[in-house]
Design brief:
Elements (H helix, E strand, L loop, with lengths): L1 E2 L6 E2 L36 H4 L11 E5 L5 E4 L4 E5 L11 E2 L13 E7 L5 E5 L6 E3 L2 E2 L6 E3 L4 E4 L2 E6 L2
Parallel strand pairs: 5-6
Antiparallel strand pairs: 1-2, 3-4, 3-13, 5-7, 7-8, 8-11, 9-10, 9-12, 12-13
Length: 168
């Protein structure tokens, strides 16, 4: 069992995130990456150069967020909408994606900062929820409560926390 450093919830060995609060759990096993050969498999959606700037993601692709400071990748599955923010003591409403463990408080992430929405056309949009420090898309500040379409590779800043949007 692994003890969550954020909420002290007990998790099964090998878990990466706490199922109770969403915090990243301490590394208990060393993970390594190895190269594999595709054996000539070719698919249009596998070519990330072709996807750069694409507004729609293939229906089989998984939306992921990469925290640029840490390199951590957060896959987002099984839902069409995710709130981004940070947990605060006494807060009755919790964000779906808790960015506290990525220095969210210090970097200016609001408790309920923004929402990501997958639309029927497989397009992804982000909406700033009236955050104190703003949401930026590729350096341009978003107007609160107005959806903005995202493309593969876009950089979203929640306050000063930079996140890259991936739909590989």
């Amino acid at each position: 069992m692994i003890q969550c450093p954020n909420c002290n919830h007990a998790e099964l060995s090998g878990a990466i995130f706490c199922s109770e609060c969403g915090a990243q759990l301490p590394d208990t096993i060393a993970l390594t990456t190895q190269s594999i050969k595709t054996g000539g498999i070719e698919a249009d959606w596998m070519d990330t150069a072709a996807l750069k700037g694409s507004m729609a993601m293939p229906s089989s692709a998984v939306l992921s967020l990469q925290i640029l400071d840490s390199g951590q990748v957060l896959p987002l599955t099984e839902r069409d909408e995710f709130t981004l923010g940070r947990v605060s003591e006494g807060q009755p409403i919790m964000p779906d994606i808790d960015l506290s463990s990525f220095n969210g408080y210090q970097l200016g992430v609001s408790r309920l900062h923004a929402v990501l929405k997958k639309q029927k056309s497989n397009e992804i949009a982000i909406v700033d929820l009236g955050s104190s420090n703003g949401t930026y898309l590729n350096g341009a500040r978003l107007k609160p409560h107005e959806p903005q379409k995202l493309a593969h590779g876009d950089i979203v800043s929640l306050g000063k926390l930079k996140i890259q949007v991936l739909f590989p």
